[in-house]
Design brief:
CATH architecture of the largest domain in chain A: 3-Layer(aba) Sandwich
CATH architecture of chain B: Orthogonal Bundle
CATH topology of the largest domain in chain A: Rossmann fold
Strand content of chain B: under 5%
Distance between the termini of chain A: 38 Å
Strand content of chain A: 25-35%
Order of helices and strands of chain B: HHHHHHEEHHHHHHH
Strand order of the largest sheet of chain B: 1-2
Distance between the termini of chain B: 16 Å
Helix content of chain B: over 70%
CATH superfamily of the largest domain in chain A: P-loop containing nucleotide triphosphate hydrolases
Structural class of chain A: alpha/beta
Largest interface: A-B, 29 and 23 residues
Number of helices of chain B: 13
Number of domains of chain B: 1
Helix content of chain A: 25-40%
Oligomer: heterodimer
Number of domains of chain A: 2
Shape of chain A: elongated
Number of strands of chain B: 2
Radius of gyration of chain A: 26 Å
CATH class of chain B: Mainly Alpha
Largest sheet of chain A: 6 strands, mixed
Structural class of chain B: mainly alpha
CATH class of the largest domain in chain A: Alpha Beta
Number of strands of chain A: 22
Largest sheet of chain B: 2 strands, antiparallel
């Protein structure tokens, strides 16, 4: 029913999709697999009319179509079930299902009775555990998902797209969603299903299409592929040399985390970092890596567990206490939480340690600007002067300013959350060089990364998280498949395929 | 550079235009009256500059001015010495500012709402305390504060210069000032850098309140009355002065020099309207239009930068 060939999409200078191919038949559940950023979601947005393609052909029932907006997709019978609910929480289930398509009476009145009747019939037909009168705001995430599904099918859609429908659901709710997906397939509808959870595949899928770096790399019936082969297709790229770091002999233990837990986010996390070490932290989006960094640094509360810095137990309940303990958090989103963009580079660098350049609350502006100039030279930040606004720097140089801020604070434990996000390739190597230098000068570094090549090349060893736990540790030189297995499969499945 | 030059150019043009249009404009009496009129707004606007730089806003300054002036003059009426009365007025302002800062940071409510609420509370309390009646029996020498002259220059101008110098020093040369810029520019980044954000935000509101309390005493001295209804609509003028002077309502930007220029532009607009016989009703409309114009220019500049 749907045939996509050689679909391309660029955002500015970034190619999100270089060669997207997909062939979906009526009456099948078609799985889309791939790492974060492989291009699956972009392709689905094009199918759902949320984005226009730059090139390639899209055939629907054998005819070429151009979709400019979601309404165009809805008109031909394609609907997307969104990951995050786009529902009106204060309205009832029935009103949400028919939102914008109510039964109209003259003068703008709405026929409420008929709307509710139609909703009741629809719910009954599919055996959904819902009531038309319920308020959507009070439903569980699974319930909301069902309302989204109702909304999609009541409009007569023949192709439904699910974007990671089970990421926020419990196990029994997941089973419920699978049952519904299969019943839709049995009504001869087409279903496209994006997922990151590899063990789900066999419970629900018929065919698999695998994406890597914006291209379709493989497509086949599910029973023809082993899980091992699937992982190989997902990650099996040529690994380009990014940065080679000479091994360092680890020094004294600087950070020890024991039994850190937070309901729904972290489960009994323990590990340690030594001076001179860069330790990688891998895992899929939502595995709890960012949450772990935030908990150690003190911006998120924890339910239990301890953090010790340089052998002493640290009581950290706020970012201020995290900073005081010598911990630095280089956040994922440096524009939002790392830099004051409209202040100068110099002011950003000294921000976390103004006490070092002031006496009795009065700043020594000369000492401050000298300190900033030194940092700029040491980290090779490309800027006209310390007076320049942080706003005007490139991503790589902005990242260096954040690092300079923590260097000036004399932090010894660095938590880097996706340190190369939004930075171009040349600047990445420079950021790694700075991290390497930090470690050589006695810092302990935790590096969260979703990019397997850098995760495998830069750190001395790699921890992998999945669903709030650390599922394993790998030495330098581990393979992409090993990381992927720890990140995407539960213990039972891992043993089965080994 | 434009955002610094434009207000200054406007002020110069306004000054020259008024000098040509009205023969009375350049007289000593008129100019010193402009200074006296502007000083009250100006001193309030200095505090507002710090608050706006820290990403906040204070709508309650008019009410704080009235309460400070009233309680200060009431103390004098009851026999307190003049310096003590002035100190009480200033302290009342400080306390009100502290409450504003405390509520904003501890309750996490937008300062626009908090100070809209305290505007009502403070004004209401002032009317209750005074029974709605002004205080008149004030020792005569108190008039020196708002009406006196030192070395041929109005005393309020000396006070204004001193306050402006201190505010400038605080903003540009102290940790508190730098934190105000950091918090206003990106509060999240300030928290992640370990800056005690709540403490410094509260301090900024308290200093703003303190300056407003002083302005309240000057206003009371000029009128030789403790007026419970004083200062209505002054918040608009104080905010306008900051914004016309290049302060950004998004926080992180603003300067003392800019605010001084902004306040004098508004002072000249009102003085010029008086001299040229423009209706006071129209004056209000003109000030409103100037505010919108200044903010629009600021937004256009922002969009070009971002």
């Amino acid at each position: 029913m749907l045939e996509l060939s050689n679909i391309q999409k660029r955002f500015g200078g970034v190619t999100a999709l270089a060669d997207g191919n997909l062939h979906v038949r009526a009456g099948e559940v078609h799985l889309l697999l791939g790492e974060n950023g492989a291009g699956k979601s972009t392709l689905m947005k094009i199918v759902a009319g949320m984005q226009e393609r730059d090139g390639g052909r899209m055939l629907w029932q054998g005819r070429e179509v151009f979709l400019k907006q979601p309404a165009d997709a809805a008109a031909i019978g394609v609907a997307m079930v969104h990951q995050e609910s786009l529902l009106a929480p204060h309205l009832s289930v029935a009103e949400n299902i028919f939102l914008g398509r109510e039964d109209r009476l003259p003068f703008g009145w709405v026929n409420r009775r008929r709307t509710f009747e139609r909703a009741r019939r629809l719910i009954e037909q599919h055996g959904f555990p819902l009531q038309a009168e319920w308020r959507v705001g009070k439903l569980s995430p699974a319930g909301k998902q069902l309302v989204e599904i109702c909304r999609a099918i009541q409009h007569g859609s023949s192709l439904l797209i699910f974007d990671e429908p089970t990421s926020s659901l419990s196990e029994s709710e997941t089973g419920e969603v699978f049952r519904i997906v299969r019943s839709l397939r049995d009504r001869n509808m087409g279903v496209i299903y994006i997922t990151h959870r590899l063990q789900e595949l066999r419970a629900v899928g018929d065919r698999v299409t695998i994406f890597r770096d914006g291209r379709t790399v493989h497509s086949a019936p599910l029973e023809e592929l082993t899980t091992h082969q699937i992982i190989h297709h997902m990650v099996g790229r040529e690994v380009e040399a990014l940065y080679t770091r000479e091994a360092v002999k680890p020094g004294a233990e600087l950070l020890r985390v024991e039994g850190l837990s937070r309901a729904g986010k972290l489960r009994d996390v323990s590990f340690s970092l030594c001076a001179g070490e860069i330790v990688g932290l891998g895992g899929l989006v939502g595995a709890g890596r960012t949450e772990l960094c935030r908990a150690i640094f003190g911006v998120d509360p924890v339910d239990s567990g301890t953090v010790s810095v340089e052998g002493r137990k640290a009581e950290i309940h706020s970012a201020g206490e995290g900073v005081a303990a010598g911990i630095a958090l280089v956040t994922e989103d440096r524009q939002k939480t790392g830099l004051a963009l409209r202040l100068s580079i110099a002011h950003n660098i000294t921000m976390a340690n103004l006490k070092a350049v002031s006496r009795l609350g009065v700043l020594d502006l000369k000492a401050e600007s000298e300190a900033a100039t030194q940092s700029i030279a040491r980290l090779r930040i490309k800027a006209a002067s310390g007076e320049q606004l942080a706003l005007r720097l490139s991503g790589g140089n902005q990242q260096k300013v954040v690092i300079a801020k923590w260097l000036f604070r004399r932090a010894r434990v660095f938590l880097f959350d996706e340190p190369t996000r939004g930075i171009d390739v040349g600047a990445k190597a420079e950021v790694f060089a700075v991290m390497d230098e930090l470690a050589r000068n006695g810092a302990a570094i935790l590096m969260v990364s979703s990019e397997l090549p850098e995760l495998l090349q830069v750190p001395d060893r790699i921890l992998v998280m999945r669903q709030g736990r650390i599922t394993g540790e790998l030495p330098k030189g581990a393979s992409q498949e090993q990381v992927m297995r720890l990140a995407a499969l539960d213990t039972e499945h891992r043993e089965n395929i080994q | 550079m434009m955002q610094r030059l434009l207000p200054f150019l406007s002020l110069t043009i306004l000054f020259v235009a008024l000098a040509i249009a009205s023969p009375y404009f350049l007289t000593n009496t008129n100019l010193s009256s402009v200074v006296r009129q502007t000083a009250v707004i100006n001193i309030m606007a200095l505090g507002m500059t710090m608050i706006i730089i820290a990403g906040g806003i204070d709508l309650s300054v008019g009410a704080i001015l009235a309460m400070g002036g009233l309680l200060g003059t009431m103390a004098m009426e009851k026999g307190a010495p003049i310096p003590a009365g002035i100190a009480i007025g200033i302290f009342v302002g400080l306390a009100c500012g502290f409450v504003n800062g405390f509520l904003t940071t501890k309750l996490g409510i937008a300062p626009f709402i908090v100070t809209l609420g305290t505007l009502g509370i403070i004004r209401g309390l002032t009317l209750i305390i005074s029974n709605g009646l002004p205080v008149h029996r004030i020792p005569q020498p108190f008039s020196f504060l708002g009406g006196g002259t030192v070395l041929g220059v109005p005393f309020v101008l000396w006070i204004l210069v001193a306050c402006a110098a201190l505010t400038h020093f605080t903003l540009e040369h102290t940790r508190l000032g730098r934190y105000a810029f950091a918090i206003g520019s990106n509060a999240d980044a300030a928290v992640y850098a370990g800056i005690p954000v709540a403490f410094h935000t509260t301090a900024v509101y308290a200093i703003g309140g303190m300056l407003t309390g002083l302005a309240g005493m000057i206003e009371a001295s000029r009128l030789m009355t403790g007026q419970p209804t004083a200062g209505q609509g002054y918040e608009l003028q104080a905010i306008a002065a900051v914004v016309i002077g290049g302060g950004s309502l998004h926080g992180g930007e603003g300067s003392v020099v800019g605010t001084l220029i902004g306040a004098f532009i508004m002072g000249l607009l009102s003085n010029g309207s008086d001299l040229l016989g423009v209706s006071p009703y129209l004056q209000q409309a003109i000030i409103g239009a100037v505010i919108i114009l200044a903010v629009t220019l600021d937004e256009i500049r922002k969009r070009r930068v971002a």
